């Protein structure tokens, strides 16, 4: 069941919100959390009951270990982190490792053919919880509260990566304040804007991008650039659209989740890009990996090595494919180059040039992220670099133009929702976007999965 499906929007979400609203009238924290937890379990269980059983087992195990971690038992923290990572590695990377060691046609164990949905995200959630309990930044809650935190359906599948300390107070209130009118309005606006980003922009860009990458060695230079730039916009509108919907739905339930995007393509350096793109992942990698490796406290050389390690592992986290590792490695090289330039160069690039250079570097790296293998990536990059005549796509050009205008000229969804949720103009705009999105969903007859659902 996808966020951009009619079944979710017209049945699951209204029923869940209605149940939460009714339960809120009884001022029962237990009842509200039980409804949210049960609804989230049903949402995830629709994909796979077996994967739900695995997730519930991991929730119970981490909650039990947290009791010892809270008593400052380092062994419990070590066991918890190792077990979480082991489950992630076994289910997500076993097939990849066997193919590298033996052969492409090696028999893959059945449990490694299709790894559990959202395992990358809920693994990070639970590791951050154990570490924060160890660092005394969070206290171990009751099992229902912890299960609700991990299972919470708006953020379960693809984030934002939420620290328990960020929602502990909200979930732990003795007198719940779920379903506030102001939150509901803002959340509904974000939900519709996110849906529009996904259905009207990202999904419209997808077919041309897919066609180009499927025909990588027969592209013109213009068409190859359309494919790379188009995918950059596709993944931005797809993932930020998901995030807007997730944060919006959480607000409609009365919960505030952290921001995950802040106009990343307006960044003038790659460092700034990562402060604006998938912000909760960047923060997780910084606080739980980069700093654990020593951060920038042990000299410049160690700092640069740590940056490369973090970005390589961040790339691998996205999926069991070497192209993701190269994508992460490229961003590591960019970050290292920026750090060295900032430290040793007396020159400062003009903002327009710095922005253009950053955007070009990010766009080139997206080719590896999108390509299923190095051969396809080489084909697209080769056509981008070596001038080649041939046709372009008018549809891609139009959609890229629309996406670019929205990216660099339109206000951010969050600002629009927070500042103008009483505006009649915004109400009309939201109605138009909702209508266009629903009509598009009905006309296509299917819902395209969010890109980050694969991670």
Automatic annotation (TrEMBL):
GO biological processes: alginic acid biosynthetic process
GO molecular function, one term: acyltransferase activity
Top-level lineage group: Bacteria
Location in or out of the cell: Cell membrane
Its membrane topology: Multi-pass membrane protein
Pfam families in the cross-refs: MBOAT
Keyword annotations: Acyltransferase, Alginate biosynthesis, Cell membrane, Membrane, Transferase, Transmembrane, Transmembrane helix
Transmembrane segments: 6-24, 31-61, 73-91, 103-123, 143-162, 183-205, 225-251, 300-318, 353-369, 425-453
Annotated Gene Ontology cellular component terms: plasma membrane
InterPro entries: Ac/AlaTfrase_AlgI/DltB, AlgI, MB_O-acyltransferase, MBOAT_fam
Record's keyword annotation contains Transmembrane: yes
Pathway assignment: Glycan biosynthesis; alginate biosynthesis
Family classification: Belongs to the membrane-bound acyltransferase family.
PANTHER family given in the database record: ACYLTRANSFERASE, TEICHOIC ACID D-ALANYLTRANSFERASE
Name under which the protein is recorded: Probable alginate O-acetylase AlgI
Organism: Bradyrhizobium zhengyangense
């Amino acid at each position: 069941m996808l966020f951009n499906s009619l079944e979710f929007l017209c049945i699951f979400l209204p029923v869940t919100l209605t149940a939460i609203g009714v339960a809120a009238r009884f001022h029962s924290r237990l009842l509200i959390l039980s409804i949210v937890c049960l609804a989230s379990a049903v949402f995830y269980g629709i994909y796979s009951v077996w994967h739900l059983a695995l997730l519930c087992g991991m929730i119970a195990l981490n909650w039990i270990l947290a009791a010892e971690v809270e008593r400052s038992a380092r062994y419990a923290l070590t066991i918890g982190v190792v077990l979480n990572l082991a489950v992630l590695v076994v289910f997500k990377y076993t097939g990849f490792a066997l193919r590298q060691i033996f052969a492409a046609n090696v028999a893959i164990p059945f449990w490694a053919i299709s790894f559990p949905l959202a395992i990358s995200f809920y693994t990070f959630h639970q590791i951050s919880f154990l570490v924060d309990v160890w660092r005394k930044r969070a206290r171990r809650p009751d099992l229902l509260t912890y299960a609700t935190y991990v299972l919470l359906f708006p953020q379960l599948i693809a984030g934002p990566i939420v620290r328990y300390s960020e929602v502990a107070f909200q979930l732990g209130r003795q007198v719940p304040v779920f379903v506030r009118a102001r939150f509901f309005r803002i959340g509904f606006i974000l939900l519709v804007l996110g849906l529009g980003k996904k259905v009207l922009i990202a999904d419209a860009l997808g077919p041309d991008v897919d066609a180009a990458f499927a025909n990588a060695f027969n592209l013109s230079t213009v068409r190859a650039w359309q494919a790379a730039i188009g995918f950059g916009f596709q993944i931005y509108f797809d993932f930020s659209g998901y995030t807007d919907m997730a944060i919006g739905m959480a607000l409609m339930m009365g919960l505030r989740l952290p921001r995950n995007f802040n106009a990343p393509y307006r960044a003038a350096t790659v460092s700034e890009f990562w402060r604006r793109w998938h912000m909760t992942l960047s923060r997780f990698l910084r606080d739980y990996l980069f700093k654990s490796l020593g951060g920038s406290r042990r000299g410049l050389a160690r700092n640069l090595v740590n940056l490369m390690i973090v970005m390589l592992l961040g790339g691998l986290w996205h999926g069991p494919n070497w192209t993701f590792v190269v994508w992460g490695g490229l961003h590591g090289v960019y970050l290292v180059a920026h750090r060295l330039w900032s430290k040793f160069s007396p020159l400062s690039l003009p903002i327009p040039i710095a922005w253009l250079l950053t955007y070009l570097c990010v766009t080139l790296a997206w080719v590896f992220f999108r390509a299923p293998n190095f051969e396809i990536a080489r084909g697209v990059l080769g056509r981008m670099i070596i001038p080649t005549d041939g046709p372009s796509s008018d549809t891609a050009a139009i959609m890229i133009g629309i996406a670019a205008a929205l990216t660099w000229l339109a206000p951010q969804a969050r600002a629009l929702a927070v500042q103008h949720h009483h505006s009649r103009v915004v109400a009309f705009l939201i109605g138009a976007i909702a209508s266009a999105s629903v009509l598009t969903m009905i006309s296509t007859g299917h819902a395209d999965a969010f890109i980050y659902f694969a991670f």
